[in-house]
């Protein structure tokens, strides 16, 4: 490393950087094609009532079926889609897929629950967003109560004024809004009063502190408890992300957070695999 950065070397243009740039460029070209070639698909993760495992809603999580590389997770292409502006094409595709899935399930007699769709910051601040989302739902004949949109706390903090305006418009159209990854942004809490969201999604990093140890250090749980309490006091629903263990489930129930999603209940699944669970209406923890 020290040697590679020594005198006479191209510190910012090593063969590795070159390769990475090339890869990113290639991925961008591939993504452009993917958007026209039906390579984008959704997996769905249930949000469950921790008391009885009942499925309350689903989160739609995008995947890319790459012809050579296989299934690519959003962490590898959403940031790219955001920096290249391709997110403005990808976002509508995701919403269309979610709406179509609701209609498919309805047609098959599968009991449906609302679907939550993630919005990126670039989409949140787009003029006419509420209009577009409203038109899409209406075009599919889907009631706005069947759709929720997740915006991240860090996106909202980019411009609280515009986030308030966008969320207000979406609420007026009957959509629910969740504040995603809550607790990870550099948020001053005063903005929360003004942002008319329905729920807080407690970031998974807070829950990760809780494991099977019987005695937890106070600090490990203090912030988690404070966030749950804050949501409670503001009259917001709380959804815990990333429940992986029975100890975490018990902790949440003991602290008045009754809704969660996580591998302990169910990984994000393709629609066909979710169907039996939707028919049953519930999932078994640990299964
Ligand atoms: P997110 O919205 O916070 O979604 C939750 C992520 O946590 C998902 O990762 C999910 O698979 C994962 N997860 C759920 N339960 C557990 C658990 O128990 N343990 C662990 N370790 N992870 C768990 P995924 O599907 O890879 O998505 C990552 C992120 O990509 C999402 O985070 C979201 O920010 C973004 N994303 C996904 N789909 C979309 C989309 O359609 N549009 C936009 N703009 N962003 C999306
Ligand atoms: Mg989300
Ligand atoms: Mg999240
Ligand atoms: Mg997250």
UniProtKB/TrEMBL annotation:
EAL domain segment(s): 24-282
Domain of life from the UniProt record: Bacteria
Name the record gives this protein: EAL domain-containing protein
Organism: Marichromatium bheemlicum
Residue window of the full protein shown: 782 to 1068 of 1068
């Amino acid at each position: 490393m020290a040697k590679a950065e020594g005198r006479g070397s191209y510190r910012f243009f090593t063969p590795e950087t070159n390769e990475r740039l090339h890869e990113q460029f290639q991925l961008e070209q591939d993504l452009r094609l993917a958007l026209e070639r039906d390579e984008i698909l959704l997996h769905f993760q249930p949000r469950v009532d921790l008391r009885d495992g009942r499925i309350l809603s689903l989160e739609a999580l995008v995947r890319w079926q790459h012809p050579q590389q296989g299934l690519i997770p959003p962490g590898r292409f959403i940031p790219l889609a955001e920096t290249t502006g391709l997110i403005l094409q990808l976002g509508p595709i995701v919403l269309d897929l979610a709406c179509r899935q609701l209609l498919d399930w309805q047609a098959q007699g599968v009991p449906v629950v609302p679907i939550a769709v993630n919005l990126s910051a670039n989409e949140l601040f787009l003029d006419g967003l509420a209009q577009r989302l409203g038109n899409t739902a209406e075009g599919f004949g889907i009631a706005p109560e069947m759709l929720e949109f997740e915006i991240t706390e860090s996106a909202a903090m980019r411009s609280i004024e515009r986030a308030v305006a966008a969320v207000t418009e979406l609420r007026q159209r009957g959509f629910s809004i969740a504040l995603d990854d809550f607790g990870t942004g550099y948020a001053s809490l005063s903005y929360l009063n003004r942002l008319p969201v329905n729920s807080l999604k407690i970031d998974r990093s807070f829950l990760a502190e809780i494991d099977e140890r019987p005695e937890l250090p106070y600090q490990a749980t203090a912030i988690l408890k404070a966030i749950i309490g804050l949501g409670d006091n503001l009259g917001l629903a709380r959804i815990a992300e990333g429940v992986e263990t029975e100890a975490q489930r018990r902790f949440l129930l003991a602290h008045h957070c009754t809704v969660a999603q996580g591998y302990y209940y169910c990984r994000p699944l393709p629609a066909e695999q979710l169907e039996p669970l939707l028919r049953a209406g519930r999932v078994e923890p640990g299964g």
